[in-house]
UniProtKB/TrEMBL annotation:
Family recorded in the similarity comment: Belongs to the creatininase superfamily.
Required cofactor(s): Zn(2+)
Key words, A-Z: Hydrolase, Metal-binding, Zinc
Keyword Nucleotide-binding (UniProt): no
Coiled coil: none
Lineage: Bacteria, Bacillati, Bacillota, Bacilli, Bacillales
Name the UniProt record assigns to this protein: Creatinine amidohydrolase
A family per Pfam: Creatininase
Gene source species: Planococcus versutus
Gene Ontology terms: biological process: riboflavin biosynthetic process
InterPro entries assigned: Creatininase-like_sf (IPR024087), Creatininase/forma_Hydrolase (IPR003785)
Gene3D superfamilies attached to this UniProt entry: Creatininase
Amino acid sequence: MDMMTINLKEFKEMQKTVNTVLLPIGMIEAHGPHCALGTDVLIPREFVRRLEKERGNQILMAPEVTYGHSWGLASFPGTIDISAKAFSNYVFEICKGFYENGFNNIILFNGHGGNISSLDIVTEKLADIGVRTLTINWYVDYREDIKKIAANPGHAGEDETSLVLAINEKYAFTEGVGSHEIPLAKRFRFKDGGATLYPEAFSGDAENATAEKGEKLYRMMMNLILKDIDTLWKIEQQQERR
Ligand SMILES: [Zn+2]
């Protein structure tokens, strides 16, 4: 069910049977010279479109949080960086609003690496007030399986660029883009370090991305996501039995 398009009457009816909401969380950020600035919003949106077909009667699809936090790429043009504090408070308040509307299962579908540490804080606070959450960071959680399809993943790398191409081939290009390795472990942090880690605002082998790989990645990850959602519901059943 798409929250953007249902009315109050339909919402109240749905509340009687649905207590799970999916909140997509993205970012507007430089993604190499070759991927859309909205990549981290476009990919969660595509997953939502597919999940709606599979679990649309059990999950409320909430409108997305478009802007997030990006320490690493804040210096690049096209990145709109919200501080970790403001961002995590904002996301917490949104989730609290859903909880007060009867949704005690919240799926945070995150498209952007820089949001992860903030979302950790958010989900700890939510758990403390009684909300069950599942956070999906697809590029981290399913990385080993991703590598079987896109061997050289990364920020706007082979995996992410392929996923964008599978949505619309106009939203990314690969010709002459090449490949970048992250030169230093991310645990070294220093002023303007982000530009050192991401020399052209990307990592991985973007040149090898294709729409076909993207479609394979969506199908592979959809199965894993559905399993993760089932686990969240199993946790709910176990808690209710106690
Ligand atoms: Zn991205």
